[in-house]
Specification:
By secondary structure, this protein is an alpha/beta fold. The chain has a single domain, classed as P-loop containing nucleotide triphosphate hydrolases (Rossmann fold, 3-Layer(aba) Sandwich), CATH 3.40.50.300. It is 32% helix and 26% strand. The protein has eight helices and seven strands. Strands 1, 2, 3, 4, 5, 6 and 7 form a seven-stranded mixed sheet that branches. The radius of gyration is 16 Å and the shape is globular. Bound molecules: guanosine-5'-triphosphate and magnesium ion. Magnesium ion is lined by residues 36-37, 54-55, 78, 80.
Length: 193
């Protein structure tokens, strides 16, 4: 059972003194334009970049953070949500071994909830990746089709352990997403130490 969790974590032998040696993998999925890249950038830089270009293929960041006194490094994979990238058949590989998958939809666009089906299909069920569901762009008027019961059903359908509404424009929920990623990752890593 212990080895089972080892597949989630890369241990780097020598990354520099200030870098946590444990790197937890987190993957962001969701349809094109829901706000994945902008959310990651808002967290990493503190700025709302409203000129984000669509992500071609997959973006990647390494981020060192602390959560409740423990250090962790995250490898953050940001999947380009445009249809042509989904159809390339590469995303299964990117989701494999992730501790956390962030599945994101756009609160202004009900169709983006429907799109989550494909993204959930990429989640690695063998390694029991935890899903965080994120509803983005909460600063904008919400699509009236996204009623509370639709959100509740979506949480259940994708076994999300947390649902967070975010705005990269005003910062709401942005820190919380990454704190939750760190908390979940550290809990899992504790099981292999
Ligand atoms: N008002 C508002 N606009 C946002 C927010 N998040 C993203 N946007 C805008 O939505 C557009 C798309 O954002 P991206 O972050 O590029 O979306 P994405 O999910 O990375 O898209 P792909 O890379 O194509 O998968 C950009 O013009 C952003 O400025 C938000 O929280 N509030
Ligand atoms: Mg993007």
């Amino acid at each position: 059972m212990i080895c089972y969790y080892k597949t989630y974590v890369d241990k780097l032998p020598c990354w520099g003194a200030s870098m946590s040696k444990i790197i937890a993998k987190v993957v962001f999925g969701g349809d094109g334009g829901v706000g994945k890249t902008t959310l990651i950038q808002r967290y990493l830089t503190g700025e709302f970049i409203d000129t984000t270009k669509l992500t071609i293929g997959v973006g990647f960041h390494i981020h060192q953070m602390s959560h409740q006194g423990r250090d962790i490094s995250l490898s953050v994979w940001d999947c380009g949500g445009q249809e042509q990238f989904k159809q390339m058949g590469i995303f299964d590989n990117y989701f494999r071994g992730a501790l956390v998958a962030v599945l994101m939809f756009d609160l202004t666009r009900a169709l983006s909830i429907g799109g989550l089906n494909t993204w959930y299909g990429f989640v690695d069920k063998n390694t029991k990746t935890d899903v965080i569901l994120v509803g983005g762009k909460s600063d904008l008027p919400r699509d009236p089709l996204i009623a509370d019961d639709i959100v509740e059903d979506t949480i259940k359908k994708y076994n999300a352990i947390r649902y967070i509404e975010t705005s990269s424009a005003n910062g709401l929920g942005v820190e919380l997403v990454f704190n939750e990623i760190a908390r979940i990752s550290l809990d899992k890593i504790s099981e292999i130490d």
